Amino acid sequence: MRALRSSFKTLSPRLPSSIHTRKSLSTSLPPTDDPKCSDELPSGTPINAHGPEVVQSPEAVIEFLLSNQEKPSIALEFFEQARVQSTGGDDGLHDVDSLCIMLHILVRAGKLLDARNLMKISILGDSVALPSVVVDRLIETSRRCDFDPICFNHVLAFYARTGTVEAAVEAFKRMVANGVSPSLESRNSLLVAMLRSGSFSKAQELFEEMRAKGMNIDLSTIHIMMNVFIKAGKPEQAEVYFRELVDNGQLKPDVLIYSTLIQLLCKKPDVKRAFELLSEMKVAGLVPNAFIYNLLIPTCVKKGNLGEALRLKDEMLDYGLPMNLVIATSLMKGYCLKRDLDSAMDLFSTVLNQGIKPNNVTYAVLIDGCYRNGNGERAYELYLQMKERGMVPNVFNLNSVIQCMLKSNKWKEAFDLFDEAVESGIANIFSFNILIHWLCCVGRLKEACRLWDRMEDMGLEPNVVSYNNLLFGHCVQGDLDSAAKLYTQMSQRGIKPNVITYTTLIVGYVKQNNFDQAYDLLSTMHSMGIASNEYTYNAIINGLSKAGRLTEVKDMLHKFMEEGFIPSSMTYNSIIDGFVKKGMMSAAISTYQEMRRCGIFPNVITYTSFIDGYCRSNCIDLALKLLNQVRSKGLPLDIVVYNSLIASLCKEEKIEIALDLFHDLDKVGLKPNAFIFNSLISGYKILNNMEAAFELHKRMLSEGIPCDTETYTNLIDGSLKVGKTALAYELYYKMLEQGNIPDDVTFIALIHGLCNNGDLVGAHKILNEMDRMDVCPNVHIYNKLINGYFREGKLEEAFALHDEMLGRGLVPDDTTYDILVSKKFQGNLSTARTSNA
């Protein structure tokens, strides 16, 4: 040990003072399998492999390595044994010179793996010297052995790939300062390391330094630097480098360079410039790769240019590039956005036939397309197909299918699917929210509340959307007390109400003409820092207009404008419609003129209100005249205009004029909706022409127009009026089967019709059906049933119904008492006559 320390001290003065020797490494490299290395060391080897350790001095190790430069395996084995036998502590053997000489030998011999292993253990170890020292000793030791600059390239590349960026930069600068120019490949490795580490500004500085020193660059260098600027948020600089490359002419951009810039432009998106580059590269004789088409085709679809996307797809196929899932899914999405579900499904079939396996995104796109087209049945088929293919539908797929099925009125199937998803653990809070919202929209509030309880039982915490949905349900039902309790519960649970929460409540109070409470809520919302949106203000304006408080509307409008509200056509349309509904056509015209003075142009809704006003005033001729004026102005006519006109004409039994407008729909590019069909069916019902009414019903079915509750109610009512009770029952059960929920009008039509046809048993069953469906019967229904029982002499049942009505809190009207008194008197008179006889 004393000899070792003495030898080390003898060598130390010859080493640079900047070398920092730390803890010695004792880990050995993997043994070499070089066949040139014999089993026994040559004679004169300073280390005895089988006897006691003989620790050599650093200089002796160096001399041995230099004398065995042509025998790299022997040199490496000796170097490792010397390292293993070195002692620990600050005086241990750690000669940077011997390491550098060993690296020179290994790199020159092409043993790069051994060189990398050696660098990994030595340069990255705890005992390593600074990068600048390693470079200095590499230069110094290169003079004692055969100089080979390749070693410097490997050392720099090693620092770049495995060390810190700072160490790699230090090594590079030390090499350059000593006249060693690293290779282009190693410099690119350094720039890549800086890119990956996020050292964007330092990479730019170093690159400019390389250029200033006249170091050459290649396409890889340009590509690296373009990515540096893109990652640094300087995309314009990336394009500058690209243009320098093109304009310089020394290097020609390759497909990779073009694809990088096209990717950048697609993200902006600057589709025009991206296509310019595509043309430029094709002129240069370069063939675009699949990656470029994967960028451009989805971008075209997002921009709504499906035609160009399809052209690119054909071009890609012409180049011999196969269709892939990314492009196919993008095109399917394009078709779906255009509501061309058939083309999307045809492409899907093509993809399957080509052996391309769809993923969750593909199915999500198609299911969304089904939702846009109202095709719940096909959405459900796709969902099942996913499962058949062994794919696990995610909650997004599930929720899309449920929404689609609800939109298509397949609510039973939607709930079955939901129950299955709950059992399998797929359903989440959003799934519950979708169904709660739908139930509230269709007036099935009790079921919505039961679903809410089920959600909480599962441990799912309701969010603000959940509360907003249930609040909406209570407000629609007019139950503002329950809505207020729910609102209080939100605060207790720490859920912050949003603008939708307050607007929903405000609309609820407005509908009940409780404007004081609505104004209080508006103030509360503002005090909490929640700004009103256009819908909030317009809801109040619209509510005041509908309530006929038209003088108050003007004051509130000015107040809201002071708060920053900018009236829109929606605002003025509400006020105009309010005047129209009150029959104040002159005031409506005055508001229209004010609207024009404010620079707000009337739209179809504006003219629709006026047309509706003329229809309400029985001025059909003026309404038709205004319709022609709207046509002459070239304004696109809304289906609502025709709805109003046809409905009014049918009510006035002017069915022939209504049919003329009905036939005009095709000419103006509009399709008749359920409302128009219902108006015409109602018109024929008034004329007792049920044969024509059922022809229209048949046409609705053939054209795929869903029959709603009003459709079936009109058909049921008309059938009962002509004495076809069996047909009325058939229509009722068909309505239920198709998911249409009967409303109070349906039940009134059924009970009145059945009573008129002498089917009191059936009428009473319908009354019980109302209870089951949570539809409250009114006084008119009870009057009809009471009168029917009296007519058949069933006084006990009649008075039982009267008591039941009172128990429900319904107040009998004059008709009720007229029936009770007159029928009771007639019953007593009949009894007296029988007794006298």
UniProtKB/TrEMBL annotation:
Q: Could you tell me which InterPro entries the record lists for this protein?
A: PPR-containing_protein, PPR_rpt, TPR-like_helical_dom_sf, TPR_mt
Q: Has keyword DNA-binding?
A: no
Query: In residue terms, where are the PPR repeats?
Result: 148-182, 183-217, 218-252, 254-288, 289-323, 324-358, 359-393, 428-462, 463-497, 498-532, 533-567, 568-602, 603-637, 638-672, 673-707, 708-742, 743-777, 778-812
Domain (Pentatricopeptide repeat-containing protein-mitochondrial): give its ranges. 142-243
Q: Keywords of this protein's UniProt record, alphabetized?
A: Repeat
Give the residue ranges for region: Disordered.
1-47
Q: Which family does it belong to?
A: Belongs to the PPR family. P subfamily.
Protein's name according to its UniProt entry: Pentatricopeptide repeat-containing protein-mitochondrial domain-containing protein
The organism of origin for this protein: Canna indica (Indian-shot)
